[in-house]
Structures are given as structure tokens and as C-alpha cells.
Design a protein that fits this description.
By secondary structure, the chain is of the alpha+beta class. It has a single domain, classed as PCu(A)C copper chaperone (Immunoglobulin-like, Sandwich). The chain contains 2 helices and 10 strands; from the N terminus they run ααββββββββββ. Strands 1, 2, 3, 4, 5, 6, 7, 8, 9 and 10 form a 10-stranded mixed sheet that branches. The longest helix is centred in the N-terminal third of the chain and has 27 residues.
Length: 161
């Protein structure tokens, strides 16, 4: 009996040494581990009464489609992804987007005049030169937090620092 237990413990030890690192690595390869985030920035706010927006680029480095389900931050009471569209009469409208899918190898841009992250119910003014955290929540429940630099109120791109 003790010989069987000793053999079993050797097998378990070998299994742990061989497979445990693989299991841990697989957890890191969730959707948040497959996405590369670049060029993030947000516009400074006019106090806390008016909403503002944040922008970024997401690149899928993985072999599976990434789904961005939500974004959160303690800086805003409400955050949602929006798309701006201009109709035939030149009237601009915004509509919320539930989630975004990014295929392997693709880059998705949140940029002025297109998709953007709306920051509403701002808890404190967003001040040029400071930064704020944003946490991206993916379809597999993995998360990635980034620090987003705050540019001027009238910024149109990351180069307007």
C-alpha cells in the first residue's frame, strides 16, 4: 500500500512539474493577454458636469477573436462605447455599442468622429497632463487596466499633447 502511495505521489509530482506551468500560462493567454493597446488618450473635461471621451487602439495578437464587452473606471460613474455616424444630411449622431469583436491580426481604433469611449458622470475633473485608469473587460471575463494620458479639451489626436 505504501509503495502504491509513493508511486502515486511521484506521478502527481511529475504531473505538477510538467502541466502546472502550462495551466498558469493558459490563464495568461485569455483575451486580455492577446490584446495590445496603443495610443490611448482622453480629452480633458469641463469640470464634472459634461461628459468627455477616451480613445485607443486595440490590436489582436492572438489566434482567436477578441470580444471587448465593457470598460470601467472609478473616474466616471457611467462608461459606454459609442459609435458616431453622419447621415446623408450631415447630421452627426451617436449610438451605444454593446460589444466589439476584433479578429486575429486586426486593429480596432477608437478615434474622434468614429468609435469612442464615453465618460459620463465624471467624479473629478480630468486635467490636461494627468492620467486616469481604464479597465477593459473582455468576453472571457479577463481584464486589462491601462493608464490613459489626458490631453487638452480640444485635442483631436494623440499628437495634440
Amino acid at each position: 500500500m505504501t509503495r502504491n502511495l509513493h508511486s502515486l505521489s511521484k506521478i502527481l509530482a511529475a504531473f505538477t512539474v510538467v502541466f502546472f506551468p502550462t495551466i498558469l500560462a493558459a490563464q495568461d493567454i485569455g483575451q486580455s493577454g492577446m490584446v495590445q493597446i496603443e495610443s490611448s488618450w482622453a480629452r480633458a473635461s469641463v469640470g464634472t458636469m459634461r461628459p468627455t471621451a477616451a480613445y485607443l487602439k486595440l490590436h489582436n495578437n492572438g489566434s482567436q477573436t477578441i470580444v471587448l464587452k465593457a470598460i470601467r473606471s472609478e473616474i466616471a460613474g457611467q462608461i459606454s462605447m459609442h459609435q458616431t455616424a453622419v447621415n446623408a444630411e450631415g447630421i452627426s449622431t451617436m449610438r451605444p455599442v454593446k460589444n466589439l469583436q476584433i479578429r486575429p491580426g486586426e486593429t480596432f481604433d477608437f478615434e474622434p468622429g468614429s468609435f469612442h469611449v464615453m465618460l459620463m458622470e465624471i467624479q473629478q475633473p480630468l486635467v490636461r497632463g494627468e492620467s486616469m485608469p481604464l479597465t477593459l473587460i473582455f468576453g472571457d471575463a479577463s481584464e486589462k487596466t491601462i493608464e490613459v494620458p489626458i490631453l487638452s479639451i480640444g485635442a483631436r489626436n494623440r499628437g495634440d499633447e
